[in-house]
């Protein structure tokens, strides 16, 4: 039984909130850009291959250009030499965009607590979901994807995300 | 190593101090004799050390009994035909003045010496392009010096433009502005990477193009430099095993095994028969996996996506098998110094056979698509040819060298773990083109499967770890029930396996070629220095030799067929 406005429009029209309909669309059509540098990228390959099949979650359109992607997946160790490139790629992605940090290295430097490894990519770019593991299993990648989808559901399209972020390279 | 090689070398170099360490003859020469020693070792037919395996340095600053000079540089050379391994050591009195470069003898020294310069700050006189390679250009100091603190990171704000280098390379190839004006063209610079789908990781390839033809090429590596060597100096020998997993992560266990073998050879430990067979089975299995991933990705680059599913699905299934055995899919850390972590589980043999059949089917399906495929032939045959001479000169080993027609394989030429008693062949290419580099991997997989089947047939029963309380952890039962076991466990975990003081090099035929470990021990449970000799570092050093004169699209598939793995390349 329709209530309010819908009751007078009959059953040919659906009313909804702008946030809801846009977020619904965004959730199930994330286009990932895989910033794969190391071992974790191999596990992402597994997540994309047929056994785990990331396309079940609408995120199989892996883009190789940041300008066409809205989900940045950082899979692997980020060294200081790599850091400016990661930042540049993040900046090249159009808003709105989300970031998953996959694996211990990307999250915190992992076992590489030394002179060349960035101790967590959240010192360079804002991160939405962290995946633990060295490397995480492909299922964990899918889990992170679902977390991002849930997060998108609760957002409003009117607000700029991470506007005030400042990292070590800014 | 036979004593005749030692005698011969000692007779030829009476001024040098020669000794035999494990498989190699070590020569200590004075810096002024370095150049002549190296060139004689390379050029005299008696020695014929055409392959420069590696070059590294040692900083003796904190060594308990330091020698006269703080720094030593070590060149590791090989005569692959006669299996002679020679190491030439020389003191560096003043790192800023440095020593003479060996770049005029071996192309491999171009990359090798740059790394020594970057990590230790030792200058090489006459090196045409001495600059940092693993660390970024804004880095100050030299991280592998003992007085560089391990945690002192340095931020890089901008990437290097490489403009100077590519222009120098163009000039070297004889392309200057006048020629360009003459043929009425303009050079276009095209940069691939470090984040580009074709580079499968983080490598930067900069090309100067005339149309689609590559006139000159320079490459930058080091984007995945994660400080393996410095970190290893702060870990016990067993704690380093997980780090080795992450060198070539497509064949992690091969690195584990190579590393454990290198430590054991110095300890003088012979692992049990069963453990040796296990290591053979697992190394060959991982060799297959490595080739599967390489080919799957390479064929995708060529537009053959179907192959990816045929080959990668088998790799995925193999991960399941491996995780049943080791508990992990990718980074399994399954070896221990002195043996293995666990034995095969009940039913492993059957599971393995099922998996091998699956792999054979995958390979067969994929071969049907590519072997007689006109497009594959046209794109790969006669493209990016590399002669045997150049390959050796640049320090190539493994399938990439064999594709150029050099039948060098450590499993045949310096066998370990009973490889001499297995029946297998070493496939060799005839043209050194991309096609050969592809096909060699297909054929090697078949040979590896042959070895696995033989090994599984003859694997003896018995323990998998040696009985030596100084090396191997006691059984958990002992640890929990008596004080000796507990103390033993505690000491081994905290202090590590103690390796006698000394310096040694040991090598292993990994999926990409010769994987070597060069250790210096001060007698404690942690290595004083540990240098990895990664096969693909030197292969990448010769990349420009393969692609210059070819098309840009060829460079892309050439990169995928040499299987550059960042973890191993940059360590
Ligand atoms: S988290 Fe582990 S598996 Fe992932 S990139 Fe780092 S070392 Fe490799």
Molecular structure report:
The complex is a heterodimer of chains A (170) and B (571). Chain A is an alpha/beta fold and 170 residues long. Chain A contains six helices and four strands, in the order ααβαβαβαβα. Chain A has helices at residues 4-9, 18-27, 39-48, 83-92, 103-108, 138-153; strands spanning 32-36, 71-75, 98-102, 129-131. In chain A, strands 1-2-3-4 form a four-stranded parallel sheet. The longest helix of chain A has 16 residues, at 138-153. Chain B is of the alpha+beta class and 571 residues long. Chain B is globular, with a radius of gyration of 24 Å. The complex binds iron/sulfur cluster (SF4). Iron/sulfur cluster binds at residues 38-40, 76-77, 103-105, 110, 134-135 of chain A. Iron/sulfur cluster binds next to helix 3 and helix 5 of chain A.
Protein chain pair with the most extensive contact, residues per chain: A-B, 40 and 49 residues
Number of helices of chain A: 6
Each distinct ligand: iron/sulfur cluster
Main pleated-sheet profile of chain B: 5 strands, mixed
Based on Cα principal axes, name the global outline of chain A: globular
Mean pLDDT of chain B: 86
């Amino acid at each position: 039984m329709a209530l309010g406005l819908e009751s007078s429009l009959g059953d040919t029209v659906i009313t909804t909130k702008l946030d809801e309909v846009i977020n619904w669309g965004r959730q199930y059509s994330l286009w990932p850009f895989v910033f794969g540098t190391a071992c974790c990228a191999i596990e992402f390959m597994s997540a994309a291959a047929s056994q785990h099949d990331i396309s079940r979650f609408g995120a199989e359109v892996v883009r190789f250009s940041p300008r066409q992607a809205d989900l940045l997946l950082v899979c692997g160790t980020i060294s200081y030499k790599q850091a400016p490139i990661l930042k540049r790629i993040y900046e090249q992605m159009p808003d709105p965009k989300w970031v998953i940090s996959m694996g211990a290295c990307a999250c915190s430097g992992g076992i590489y607590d030394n002179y060349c490894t960035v101790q967590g990519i959240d010192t360079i770019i804002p991160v939405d979901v962290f995946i633990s593991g060295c490397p995480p299993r492909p299922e964990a990648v899918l889990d992170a994807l679902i977390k991002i989808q849930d997060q998108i559901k609760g957002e409003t399209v009117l607000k700029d995300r991470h506007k005030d972020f400042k990292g070590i390279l800014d | 190593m036979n004593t005749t090689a030692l005698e011969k070398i000692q007779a030829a170099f009476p001024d040098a101090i020669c000794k035999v360490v494990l498989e190699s003859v070590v020569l200590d020469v004075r810096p002024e004799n370095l150049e002549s020693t190296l060139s004689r070792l390379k050029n005299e037919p008696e020695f014929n050390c055409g392959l420069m395996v590696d070059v590294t340095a040692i900083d003796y600053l904190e060594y308990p009994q330091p020698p006269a000079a703080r720094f030593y540089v070590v060149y590791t050379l090989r005569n692959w035909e006669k299996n002679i391994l020679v190491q030439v050591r020389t003191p560096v009195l003043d790192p800023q003045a440095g020593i003479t470069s060996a770049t005029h003898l071996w192309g491999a020294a171009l990359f090798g010496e740059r790394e020594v310069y970057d990590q230790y700050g030792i200058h090489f006189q006459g090196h045409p392009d001495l600059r940092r390679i693993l660390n970024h250009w804004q880095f100050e100091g030299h991280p592998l010096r003992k007085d560089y603190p391990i945690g002192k990171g340095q931020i890089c704000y901008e990437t290097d433009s490489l403009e100077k280098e590519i222009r120098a390379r163009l000039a070297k190839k004889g392309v200057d502005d006048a020629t360009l004006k003459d043929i009425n063209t303009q050079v276009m610079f095209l940069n691939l990477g470090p984040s580009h789908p074709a580079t499968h990781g983080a490598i930067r390839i900069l090309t100067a193009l005339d149309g689609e033809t590559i006139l000159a090429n320079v490459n930058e590596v080091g984007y995945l430099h994660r400080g393996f060597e410095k970190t290893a100096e702060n870990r016990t020998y067993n704690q380093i095993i997980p780090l080795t997993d992450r060198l070539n992560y497509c064949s992690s266990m091969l690195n584990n095994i190579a590393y454990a073998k290198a430590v054991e050879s110095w300890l003088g430990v012979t692992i049990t028969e069963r453990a040796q067979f296990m290591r053979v089975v697992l190394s060959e299995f991982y060799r297959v996996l490595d080739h599967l991933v390489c080919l799957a990705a390479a064929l995708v680059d060529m537009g053959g996506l179907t192959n990816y599913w045929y080959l990668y699905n088998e790799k995925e299934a193999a991960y399941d098998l491996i995780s049943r055995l080791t508990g992990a899919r990718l980074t399994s850390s399954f070896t221990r110094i002195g043996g293995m972590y666990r034995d095969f589980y009940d039913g492993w043999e059957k599971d393995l056979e099922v998996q091998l059949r699956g792999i054979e089917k995958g390979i067969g399906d994929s071969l049907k698509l590519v072997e007689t495929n006109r497009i594959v032939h046209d794109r790969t045959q006669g493209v990016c040819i590399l002669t045997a001479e150049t390959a050796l000169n640049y320090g190539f080993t493994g399938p990439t060298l064999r594709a150029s027609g050099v039948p060098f394989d450590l499993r045949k030429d310096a066998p370990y773990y009973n490889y001499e008693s297995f029946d297998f062949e070493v496939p060799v290419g005839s043209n050194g083109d991309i096609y050969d580099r592809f096909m060699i991997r297909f054929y090697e997989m078949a040979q590896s499967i042959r070895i696995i089947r033989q090994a599984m047939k003859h694997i003896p029963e018995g323990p998998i770890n040696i009985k030596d309380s100084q090396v191997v952890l006691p059984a958990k039962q002992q640890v929990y029930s008596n004080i000796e076991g507990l103390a033993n466990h505690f000491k081994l975990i905290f202090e590590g396996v103690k390796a006698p003081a000394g310096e040694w090099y040991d090598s292993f035929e990994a999926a990409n070629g010769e994987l070597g470990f060069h250790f210096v021990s001060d007698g404690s449970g942690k290595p004083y220095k540990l240098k990895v000799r990664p096969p693909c570092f030197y292969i990448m050093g010769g990349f420009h030799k393969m692609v210059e004169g070819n098309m840009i699209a060829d460079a892309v598939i050439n990169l995928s067929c040499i299987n550059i793995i960042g973890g191993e390349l940059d360590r």
